[in-house]
Amino acid sequence: MLRLSDHWVWDSWYARDDDGLWHAFFLPASRALLDPHRRHHRATIGHAVSTDLRDWRLVADALVAADTPAWDDLATWTGSTVRGPDGRWYLFYTGVSRAEQGLVQRIGLAVCDDLVSWHRHGDGPLVEADPTWYETLDPDAWYEHAWRDPWVYPDPAGNGWHMLITARARDGAADSRGVTGHATSDDLLTWQVQPPVSTPAGFGHLEVPQVVVMDGQPLMLFCTNSVTADRGGPDAPLVWVAPGTSTTGPWDVAAAMPYAHPSLYAPRLLPDDAGGWQLIGFRDHEDGRFIGEITDPLPVRYVPGVGLVPTGPDASATPRTPTAPAQAAVAHAETAAR
């Protein structure tokens, strides 16, 4: 696991270099803040490396907040890292500013040749929400302007790149506007915002989206701590997976299926060397206390109509019994999938 004695660690994403070394990019903030709720406006993008996703060695931070004034001079948040056709690495990230008290989120880019020495691309954000389709800052509806957690991946037909984004629809019930935002690019540098690739379905937001194909089934993984009562309410599971007909969507969030775990949040699905899959995320709150450390890999498989289920000899090592609201959420998902 990745646990720091002096920092909390939460959202993470991963890249693997030509030598097979895993690179973890993650959000850290000092435990000297005492209150973990204060960590969000102190976040940087940390960096660690590992050969096995279990034992990690810290290296220099990848990115910190820019000098004031700048659109990302308060904190840098979650993103994704991909290698472009030019051989360079591209780190897409979320930024928030002091001028807006961190309430408005935008997406930026840093680039490098070696996964270590990152430099911002330009001096402004790369992708901003289009109010044609997406909610902007509306304190009467939501506490922030959600436009974060970019997940970038190549088009399966070779037609450029796709970006999935944590966003909210412009209209609808305030507690159920969560959608997956979408943008496209031919070159990773110039992006066009598109309509969302999901529709509101009982979630306030769909955080840290990721797309994979497991056993031929395109899936979108996401997490949320904002769920309407009909899907389980405050005690609903934190991690969900939605099926799609293609990696480009659309994603049937109404048929999303929960992954029952007591505290895992913002996980990523990573392939193992045996052809299987594993989840890695951070431990959120347990017994009312924020943990703030990244787990060891949790082997999983996908079962149609059920979702992700644990596998391997330690599948029952962590309590995973769903609560009553979680069981209701499972039933809802199975009904929607029929």
Task: Give a structural overview.
- The chain is built from one helix and 21 strands.
- The chain is mainly beta.
- It has a single domain, classed as Tachylectin-2, Chain A (5 Propeller), CATH 2.115.10.20.
- Strands 17, 18, 19, 20 and 21 form a five-stranded antiparallel β-sheet that branches. Strands 1-2-3-4 form a four-stranded antiparallel β-sheet, with no helix packed on it.
CATH-scheme architecture: 5 Propeller
Rounded mean pLDDT score: 92
Distance between the termini: 38 Å
Domain module tally: 1
Tell me about the largest β-sheet: 5 strands, antiparallel
Structural class: mainly beta
- What is the helix content? under 10%
Number of helices: 1
**Gross morphology:** globular
Please describe the topology of this protein.
Layout: E1 7-16, E2 22-30, E3 45-50, E4 57-63, E5 75-83, E6 89-96, E7 106-112, E8 119-120, E9 148-154, E10 161-168, E11 178-185, E12 191-194, E13 207-214, E14 217-223, E15 239-243, E16 257-259, E17 264-271, E18 277-286, E19 289-294, E20 298-303, E21 307-310, H1 324-337
Antiparallel strand pairs: 1-2, 2-3, 3-4, 5-6, 6-7, 7-8, 9-10, 10-11, 11-12, 13-14, 14-15, 15-16, 17-18, 18-19, 18-20, 20-21
